[in-house]
Amino acid sequence: MVSTVNVNGLRAAARKGFVPWLADTRADVVCLQETRAERWQLPEEVVAPPGWHVHLAPAEAKGRAGVAVYSRAQSDAVRVGFGVEEFDGAGRYMEVDVGPVTVASLYLPSGEVGTPRQEEKERFMEAFLPYLVRRRSEVEAQGRSLVVCGDWNIAHREADLKNWRNNRTKAGFLPEERSWLSRVFDEAGYVDVMRSLLPDREGPYSWWSYRGRAFDNDAGWRIDYQVATPGLASCAEQAWVERAESHDQRWSDHAPVTVRYQAG
Questions:
Q1: What pLDDT was estimated at residue 211?
Q2: Is residue 8 marked as binding?
Q3: Are 93 and 87 in contact (CB under 8 A)?
Q4: Residues 238 and 197 sit within 8 Å (Cβ to Cβ)
Q5: CA 146 to CA 136: how far, in whole Å?
Q6: 212 — alpha (psi -120 to 50), left (phi > 0) or beta?
């Protein structure tokens, strides 16, 4: 079982409920994004929880981005970045080999139309797609699988956000972003695991703004994905969003996205 969640600051999430969630989860691997912390800034129960091996990739820019992977099994290898200088120290991508599966934690830039942040997002996407193509070829040649878990910051379809009509000119639902994500699936051959299991469902959403009553009204976005090579995707049995029961029980503006894969 694999879970992924953007924690919106790991120090804050640890104070709000991440630690008991981690203690209770049945996941074998947990991927985190937007950790925004160095190892020394985090409490012991976060960096050395019983039963977990913790791998952190903070951003060189303090207080920004950052990804992590928690695994119950000892990893065989850990790699940070994907070979592009601009992003390899940005705390946006890391891979951990766990048995026959490579699990990656991705925090794709969020972007903002008409600003340098959107230009950064576009550069990231341009560089990341060829890497995904190459990486799939490499892992499959080794008889392995790859799942890229994380905050992709793109809602792929109209079914992936509640108010899609009002967001057609906003970062995260731009036509060119959605087209790029289609290429990840159609050209690179990866599978959106949640959507493969729930092809006709609205959402389920994984992010809700803290503003207004977005969470209470379930006016969310599905931007957190587990994107897997076909062999692993075919082993997925169940996928769900661990949505908090109420607004005051949230420990992030995102909720964990969890997939149960068939063992073997």
A1: 85
A2: no
A3: yes
A4: yes
A5: 7
A6: left
Q: Model confidence over 195-216: pLDDT tens digits?
A: 999 999 999 999 999 888 899 9
Whole-prediction pTM: 0.96
Catalytic residue annotation: 107, 151, 254
Topology (CATH) of 2-261: Deoxyribonuclease I; Chain A (3.60.10)
DSSP 97: E
Residue 167 among known ligand-binding residues:
no
Alpha-carbon distance of 130 to 154, in angstroms, equals 18
Question: pLDDT digit string (tens) for 102-150?
Answer: 999 999 999 999 999 999 999 999 999 999 999 999 999 999 999 999 9
Provide the 10 A C-beta neighbour count for residue 162.
21
Structure token digits, residue 118: 């959107």
120 has binding-site annotation? no
Q: What's the length of the chain?
A: 264
At 171, the amino acid letter reads: A
Listed in sequence order, the residues at least 6 apart from 118 whose beta carbon sits closer than 8 Å to its beta carbon are 111, 112, 171
CB 58 within 8 A of CB 66: yes
CA pair distance 58, 78, nearest whole angstrom: 14
Give first-to-last CA distance, the chain, whole Å.
12
The residues spanned by each domain of the chain are: 2-261
Residue 218 counted as an annotated binding residue: no
Using the structure block, give the residue that is written with the tokens 């703004």.
209
- Enclosing H/E stretch for 73: none
